[in-house]
Amino acid sequence: MRIIRDYKYVNKADRGASAAIGNFDGVHLGHQSVIDIARSAAPDAPLGIVTFEPHPREFFAPEAPPFRLTSSDTRAHRLEKLGVERLYELPFNATLSGLTPRAFAQDVIADGLGLAHVVIGADFCFGKGRAGTAQDLKAFGAEMGFGVTIAPLIQNGDAQVSSTSIRNALSEGRPRDAAAMLGHWHRIDGPVIGGDQRGRDLGFPTANMSLDGLHPPKFGVYAVLVDVLEGPHKGSYHGAASVGVRPMFGINKANIETFLFDFSGDLYGTELSVALVDFLRPEENYDSIEALVAQIDKDCAQCRAILSAL
Ligand SMILES: Cc1cc2nc3c(=O)[nH]c(=O)nc-3n(C[C@H](O)[C@H](O)[C@H](O)COP(=O)(O)O)c2cc1C
Ligand SMILES: Nc1ncnc2c1ncn2[C@@H]1O[C@H](COP(=O)(O)OP(=O)(O)O)[C@@H](O)[C@H]1O
Q: Residue 49, class by beta-carbon neighbours within 10 Å (0-12 exposed, 13-18 middle, 19+ buried)?
């Protein structure tokens, strides 16, 4: 997969793609479906994605709390796994956001990226003030010479699959509902960072990861599947993770700390992918360290049972 970060001066080899357009936060079942449609709409064309960085909401409201399900790196990895060959990750700035719908179609899609075919969801809006609709894009395509397919929206029961409903499921401690809409477990990816070196004294050393920039799942304890992605301990493990601020030890910056079962070794700096399977309980402030350790023992037993039944 090639990542192209500008819509001007695009190489000939990177033009002519059949591409889906959107934010693709989480790369959920709806996203996977538009990608499949883009693939079958023009099987001989390179399969592309047009997306934006930062996410438009981050650009318009930089002070708002983090809401992303996936970092741009994770998004790129997932798209590559789905067979995407060209990722047009366009800088979302005042210039791009100020283009009228017609200018976006002409300058970005037709002239800039030279797309052969475009796939969008039925609720897609584009251009300054989100003034352009999917139907408008179809009309521009006919005029400017690119094909447009409007994809139906994927349902999950009665509700539409969306990044927002996945965020809500995670905020409410329903990771299995999030997974049903994602088509995969919700994962937190990143390197293991240093902590307060307290976990080892408790008898539960934890691999800590930052939640910076990401939508925080409900604070509390989760049964997790852990992939160690590199290094001598590369492999898959079961574990128990604590998401939150660790009230037993003051109010700290929220992170995720994972105890891997049947594991010992150094994970500092190693890339991990932690999948949230079930929410067990909220994080608590216990009366004593002994009470916390007794509870963590119970949490681990419960997590082992949940994970071995998967
Ligand atoms: C399964 C599990 C459950 C935990 N539950 C709580 C909790 O309820 N309250 C809390 O303050 N910390 C909880 N912790 C977090 C510990 O406080 C944390 O792992 C410890 O402070 C180690 O910090 P360190 O990794 O920075 O050394 C839990 C940790 C694990 C692994
Ligand atoms: N079973 C395990 N689960 C998670 N991390 C482990 C485990 N065994 C050893 N480690 C290592 O111990 C470190 C965590 O120890 P801990 O005392 O909690 O320190 P920190 O405060 O840095 O998290 C991890 O980053 C990892 O390198």
A: buried
| Structural domain includes residue 172 | no
127 and 198 inside one domain? no
Q: Which two tokens stand for residue 279?
A: 């929410």
**Whether residues 29 and 139 fall in one domain:** yes
Q: Is the ipTM of this complex over 0.90?
A: no
Full-model pTM = 0.94
Atom of ligand 2 at shortest range from CA of 263: 1
The answer to whether residue 129 sits within a structural domain is yes
Based on the fold, state whether residues 115 and 220 are members of the same structural domain: no
Distance 192 CA to ligand 2 centre (A): 9
Mutate to test the pocket of ligand 2, among 193, 200, 226, 249 (most ligand atoms within 8 A of CB): 200
Q: Number of helices and strands (H, E) in the chain?
A: 10, 16
204 lines ligand 2 (CB under 6 A): no
Tens of pLDDT, residue by residue over 107-155, are 999 999 999 999 999 999 999 999 999 999 999 999 999 999 999 999 9
Q: In terms of residue numbers, what domain contains 126?
A: 2-156
190-215 pLDDT, tens digit per residue, is 999 999 898 889 999 999 999 999 99
Distance separating alpha carbons of residues 185 and 162, to the nearest angstrom: 15
**Are 267 and 123 found together in one domain?**
no
Q: Which H or E run contains 29? A: helix 29-41
Ligand 2 centroid – CA 306 distance (Å): 23
Q: Is 130 in the pocket of ligand 2 (CB under 6 A)?
A: no
Residue with CA closest to ligand 1 atom 19: 199
One domain, residues 137 and 202: no
Q: How many domains does the chain have?
A: 2
Query: Which pLDDT tens digit goes with each residue over 51-76?
Result: 999 999 999 999 999 999 999 999 99
Regarding whether 40 and 134 lie in a shared domain, the answer is yes
The CA distance from 130 to 121, in Å, is 14
Which of 137, 156, 175 marks a domain boundary?
156
